[in-house]
UniProtKB/TrEMBL annotation:
SUPFAM superfamilies: P-loop containing nucleoside triphosphate hydrolases. Its main location: membrane. It comes from Paenochrobactrum gallinarii. The keyword Ubl conjugation does not apply. The keyword Transport applies. PROSITE patterns: ABC_TRANSPORTER_2 (PS50893). It is found in: Cell inner membrane. This is Iron complex transport system ATP-binding protein.
Length: 257
């Protein structure tokens, strides 16, 4: 799915939260959003999913303005996993993931064997099939995060939007999740706090004060100068000899080089 964002903005309580944001995401691309807390990343992701009223500008998916689509049509195209997603504690893990099939069900197309297979596949993808019958209330924060991602995968979206998907996950599941996301045949837009993890995206955009201030390939966008200006930390670029990738070592700005 191709995504085009044109002069997107949103205000609340007289305060502009996101201002005049424009960018494009190519089909199949992994597009990362980075920025300090309060920079507008989460609000921007909700705007991309069509969840906020009175948005300025427009979001276009495969040449169709999002505002022309019904909620059901949007849910068949776009899945959003937010940082804090509410789920009834009366449900089992499998019940939660089955909710991802809702946009595809109707009186003429009830839940069936194909939906069951899709749900099992989604649970396997996040290493939660063995806990499919567990009650939601018994899960840890990391396990709940993986189940919400499985629910999004069960939607079979063309655009997957993730807000800090590695939050609450141990390092094993962080790496497994990022590897899974990179293997999906979908367009991905995700907000990330870990700048080293963000380096694996195809392209990155930097948010600050509700505006997008840079967009491009990770090595072009994440310079030590920009990192110090936006995040107020020093960054030393290092190269991993194993795969010639670049990572950063961070330090307080007052530390001597």
């Amino acid at each position: 799915m191709r995504l085009a964002v044109e002069k997107l903005g949103w205000a609340s309580g007289g305060k502009q939260i996101v201002s005049d944001v424009s960018f494009e995401v190519r089909a199949g691309e992994s597009f990362g959003l980075i920025g300090p807390n309060g920079s507008g990343k989460s609000t921007l992701l909700r705007l991309l999913a069509g969840l906020l009223p009175r948005a300025q500008g427009q979001v276009i998916v495969d040449d169709v303005p999002l505002k022309r689509l019904t909620r059901r049509e949007i849910a068949q195209r776009i899945a959003l996993v937010e940082q804090i997603a509410e789920t009834s504690e009366a449900l089992r893990v499998r019940d939660v993931v089955e909710l991802g099939r809702t946009p595809w069900l109707s009186a003429l197309s009830p839940y069936g064997a194909q939906d069951l297979a899709i749900v099992d596949e989604a649970l396997c993808a996040v290493d939660m099939l063995h806990m499919a019958d567990n009650d939601w209330a018994t899960l840890s924060g990391g396990e709940r995060q993986r189940v919400h991602i499985a629910r999004a995968l069960a939607q079979r979206p063309k655009l997957l939007i993730l807000d800090e998907p590695t939050n609450h996950l141990d390092i094993h599941h962080q790496l497994a999740l990022l590897r899974l996301v990179s293997s999906l045949q979908v367009t991905v837009v995700m907000a990330l706090h870990d700048l080293n993890q963000a380096m694996a995206c195809d392209r990155l955009a930097v948010m600050d004060g509700g505006r997008m201030i840079a967009c491009g390939k990770p090595a072009e966008v994440l310079t030590p100068e920009r990192i110090s200006g936006i995040f107020r930390v020093g960054a030393r670029p290092l190269h991993d000899c194993a795969d010639d990738s670049m990572i950063f070592r961070f330090h307080h700005l007052e530390e001597q080089n």
